[in-house]
Amino acid sequence: MKRYLALIKFSHTIFAMPFAFIGFFLASQNNEYNWQILLYIVLCMIFARSAAMAFNRYSDRDIDAINLRTANTREIPKGNIKPKNAMYFVIINCLLFTLTTYLLNNLCFYLSPVALLIILGYSYTKRFTSLCHLILGIGLSLSPIGAYIAVTGSFDILPILFSFVVLFWVSGFDIIYSLQDKEFDESQKLHSIPVLVGNQKAITMSRIFHAITFFILVLIAIIYNFQIYYWIGTFIFTSLLIYQHYLITPINLKKINIVFFTTNGIASLIFAIFIIIDLITQSL
After folding, report:
1. Mean pLDDT on 34-45
2. Which residue, of 75, 135, 201, 240, has the greatest Cβ tally within 10 A?
3. Cβ neighbours of residue 280 under 8 Å, at least 6 residues apart?
């Protein structure tokens, strides 16, 4: 079990899960809180992310084996998990995800193949496009709108706006994360923003994406009249984005794991807590 949790980096589920909770509470403003649906949403998130991460490790197993950064740290190159077993794990999680969407509503079930196509297909995008970071962002951005649909069975503009927040936030920090593999990716003819434009311009693009994230958050607050808790959450979230850019420079990538894992996980969690408090207080 430890090996499979390491395979999928289960602790990193924290990135998108808080935004799924935001989607749930947004949808529940005009509905009673259905905790069974919330449980299904959490299970969908776990199954989808487990499938996506395991498939990423499976599809990248040959690449990871020759990358000095990953050869001795990832489960398949280390020999802890056989490739075929990783694929079985992917299939099982895809089936569990699809089954859980069926328990939610018809729209979730009908859209489940689209979601799987995006989150699994991401693993191959760096082989042919530098926009792979945006594809990852799209995959994680499904969390708020997916949770909203799970409750209401319909689309709405507000959860879609929160999905755009996730899209640009994730794409921005994934560009930063990919800086550490720039030379390796170039040698293997793999694509990324740093390979395309270099470290300095890649960091600039990451900052632009995070600036867009901030402006979308402000737009949401203005249009939908959120209260003080929303602004507190937005301030903390934005401050942590600024902090991660303070830590990373083109010639200093030593703190990249702090930026990618710790800072973004904390930012996501704190932001969701304050948004949910705002939504609950408005409904009282």
Report:
1. 96
2. 75
3. 25
- pLDDT for 31: 77
Residue 70, token pair as written in the block:
């990953």
Say how far apart CA 259 and CA 244 lie, in whole Å.
Answer: 5
CB burial readout 13-52, b (16+ within 10 A) else e: bebbbbbbbbbbbbbbeeeeeeeebbebbbbbbbbbbbbb
pLDDT 10s digits, 149-197: 999 999 999 999 999 999 999 999 999 889 989 999 999 999 999 999 9
| pLDDT for the residue 4 | 65
Residue 252's φ and ψ, nearest 5 degrees, are -130, 95
Residues 6+ apart with CB under 8 A from 44: 97, 100, 101, 104, 108, 146, 150
Cβ–Cβ under 8 Å, residues 76 and 86: yes
Task: Give pLDDT tens digits for 95-137.
Answer: 999 999 999 999 999 999 999 999 999 999 999 999 999 999 9
Neighbour-count burial of 212, counting CB atoms closer than 10 A to its CB (0-12 exposed, 13-18 middle, 19+ buried): middle
Which pair of tokens denotes residue 265? 């996980």
Q: Is 75 exposed, middle or buried (0-12, 13-18, 19+ CB in 10 A)?
A: buried
Task: Give CA–CA dist 214/122, Å, rounded.
Answer: 25
All domains of the chain, ordered by start, with CATH? Answer: 2-283 (1.10.357.140)
Asked if residue 16 lies in contact with residue 166, where contact means CB atoms within 8 angstroms, the answer is yes
> What digits encode the pLDDT tens for the residues 234-277?
999 999 999 888 887 766 667 676 666 778 888 999 999 999 99
